[in-house]
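In practice, a research group might receive sequence data for several interacting partners and want a quick structural hypothesis before committing to experiments. The following worked case mirrors that situation: the sequences arrive first, and a predicted assembly follows.
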Amino acid sequence: MSAPLAGKHCLVAGGVHQLTGVMLKYLQQAGAATSIAFDPLEGSQAIALVSDTQVDVARMRALDFSSARMLQSQVMSFEPLDTLIWLPRWYGLSAFLESSSADWQQALERNFEQVVYTLQAVTRLFIAQSQGGRIIIVSLLPAQHPHPDSSVLAMSLSALQTLSLRAAHELRSHHITVNTVVAGWSQSDWSYPVTEVFDPSPQGLATNIAAACAFLASDSASHMTGSSLTVDDGYRLHMRTRSTLDQNLSKVTSPVRA
Amino acid sequence: MSGFQLRQVTLYVKLLVLMALQGSVILIVDIADEAEFHWQLADRLTQAGADVALQSPVNSTELTARVKALRQSGQRVLGVVADPTQPSEVLALMQSVIKTLSRLDTLIVLVPDMPKHFLALGPDELRHWTYHQALAAITVCQAAARELVGQAQPGRLLLLSFTDTEAAPHPVPSSFSMLIGSMALELKAFGISVSGISIARDSATDCARAVTAFLEADLPTTGQYLSLDGALFEVAA
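A structural hypothesis for the assembly, expressed as C-alpha cells:
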C-alpha cells in the first residue's frame, strides 16, 4: 500500500471495539502516526485492543468526554494533530415502545452530547495550530435511513449528523473539513444486527470503513466537507423493496447492547 | 358542470373536510415554548370540530383564560399542567386526557430544532436542547404511542419542529427526521401514523392554519418530514 497519510497524526476516539483495532492498523499501514482516546472506564479494553491488534500507537489517552471544560484542557495539551476519527460509543437496538429512559439518556450522552464536546475541543486545537484539520465521524445506516428497532440509535446519530453539517459549514474558513462515513450491512449477510458492524466486525466491511476514513483524512479529500460516504454494499438501495423491509421486520429480536 | 353544480360540489368537499376532525381528540404538548402558536393551533382545531387537550408547564391564569375562551367553540377543551421532562408527569398527563376526554386520537408535539451554531454552542444550551427538549419530545411520543396501542385503534403522532429561517442559510435535515421514520416503521402495524413538519418561527398564524389543514386532509402518509411552505396553504384555501 502507498502511504497517503505519511507525516500525518490521526486520533481515533470514542468507542473501543473491533472496528477501532482495524481502523488503527489501516491508518498505520497508510503511513499515519496514530493515537487512541477513550473513556477512562474503557481503559483496560483499550489496552487489550492495542495489544491484540499489535498496532504501534503513539499515545493512549483517557479523556473525560462528559466535561466540555476538562476535555478542552486535555485536548489543548496534545501534540500536533491532523485528523480526528470518531467511532460511536453506544449502538443498541430496541423497539421504540420498549426502549427505556436509560437507553435514550445514554445514547444521547455518548453519541451526541459528548461527541459535540470532543469535536469542539479538537476544532479549537486545529484553529490554534493554524493548519486546518480533518474531522471524520463514523455513523450507522439508521442515521440516514429509517430501520425497525433503531429509533434510539437513529435519533442520537442523526442529531450528530445534523450538527456535523452545521460544523462543516462553519469551519470552512478555517480549512477544517467535517465528513461522515456511514456503515451498514455487508452483502455477504444482511441478517445480522447492524450494530455488528462494530463488534464482531465483518473483516471486509471493517477494512472498507477504515479505507473510507483514510481517504477522507488524505490530501485527496481536501476539498470534501459536509459529505457522507456510505459503506453498505448498496443495502440502502436494496432495503427499499417491500420484501426486504418485511424480512428485516421479522428478523428483529432481542436488543444488542454496546 | 354548471356554476351551481360546481358550488354544490365545493360546498360538499368543504363540509367533508370540516367533518374530518369532528369529535377527534387531540393533545398538544408545547416543549418549544411557542405559546402563541399553541393557542392559535388549538383555536383552529376546536373550530374544525376537534376536542383539544392543552399541556402547560405552569398553572397560570392565562391557561385558565385560554381554555375558557376555547370552550366557546362548543368543543371539549382540557388544560393540564405537566412538565414534559418528567416521565411521571407525562404519564399523568395521558391519564388525565383519557379520564376526561375518553380517548386520544392525535398527539401534536411542539419542539425546537437543534441550535444553529456549532463552536459557540455551550454546554448549558446543548444540554437544555438534548435532555429538556428533544428527550422530552421523545418521552411524550412514547407515552402517547403506548396509549394509542392500548386503545387498539388508529392514531397519529405529529411532531412540529420550530426553526429560525434567518439563522439557517443552508438547508440541513431536521434532527428529528430519522426518529420520525423509525417510529413510523414500527408503529405502522398498530395503525399509528407518524409525521413531522418543520415550521418557521415568524409565521405562526399561517402555520397553524396549514397544520390544521394537514390534519383535516387525513392523508395516507407516514414517516414523512415536511417543510412548511406555500404548498400547504393551498390545502387550507
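Before designing any experiment, note the following. Strands of chain A lie at 9-14, 33-38, 59-62, 83-87, 133-140, 176-183, 228-231. Chain A touches chain B through 44 residues (CB under 8 Å).
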